[in-house]
From TrEMBL:
InterPro entries assigned to the protein according to its UniProt record, in alphabetical order: NAD(P)-bd_dom_sf, Sc_DH/Rdtase_CS, SDR, SDR_fam
Annotated transmembrane regions: none
Keyword Lipid metabolism attributed: yes
Protein name from the UniProt record: 3-oxoacyl-ACP reductase FabG
Family per similarity comment: Belongs to the short-chain dehydrogenases/reductases (SDR) family.
The keyword Metal-binding belongs to this UniProt entry's keyword annotation: no
Pfam families: adh_short
Organism: Caproiciproducens faecalis
Keyword line: Lipid metabolism, Steroid metabolism
Amino acid sequence: MKTALVTGASRGIGKAVASRLAADGFRVIVNYCASQGQAEALAAELNTLYSAGCTAIQADVSDRAQVEKMFAAAGEIDVLVNNAGIAQQKLFTDLTEQDWDRMFDVDVKGMFHCCQCALPYMIRQKRGKIINVSSMWGQVGASCEVHYSAAKAAVIGLTKALAKEVGPSGIQVNCVAPGVIETEMNAKLDADTIRELREETPLGVIGAAEDIAAAVSFLAGENSRFITGQVLGVNGGMII
Ligand code: NAP
């Protein structure tokens, strides 16, 4: 049985990805930072539903020592989904250096740590899949989210460069760029903003976490064997 590690899987998109990959037959490592109860409940639920040996493991992905400890406990990883992320809306002129650093520490450096810890086994195996979660704002930029947009653009650059470097080792690195997805990350948006976003979306709906999970499932599975270094937009047509 192959093992998938999903960062930030205690809730939202990561939770849907973990559930989908367990349903696909993976043993899933449910990473979380603060939401221990939710992560452990998910791992228990996945074990009951799929008897897949799933476990919840705590690690702040921005912290190298914690990430190394998580990978040591997790064992060999066939599929790494770098999903953990934070967002923040603030005028660029109000951003502090701490805001900027925390955004990049979690959303970019977290991927650097996790990829470096996952790769030695993948390189030995001459196979493996890394799927990074970016955002459509990393493709086109969002007002009042300059540090988030810059971090998510960095994720796309990381994906493309790493895909070139580890492709010869049989490892695929791809990226999913979600549009507006209904999770706690967007809970602060008011009804008018949600309506406007829906109206701007050609398919006329806000996405569900399961829509991202379906794209990750494809990239994690055998049907994506000739795809690497790509950015798969899952955004209802908002960014084309
Ligand atoms: P969410 O509901 O806020 O969930 C965030 C997840 O990330 C939680 O499981 C959280 O774990 C985890 N996390 C946060 N900081 C972490 C850290 N330092 N170390 C480990 N885990 C950490 O967000 P979401 O909407 O599901 O977003 C998931 C990903 O999709 C993010 O990368 C986000 O940028 C991206 N995305 C989301 C949307 C959207 O519309 N929702 C759109 C584009 C891209 P704890 O609760 O345990 O802290």
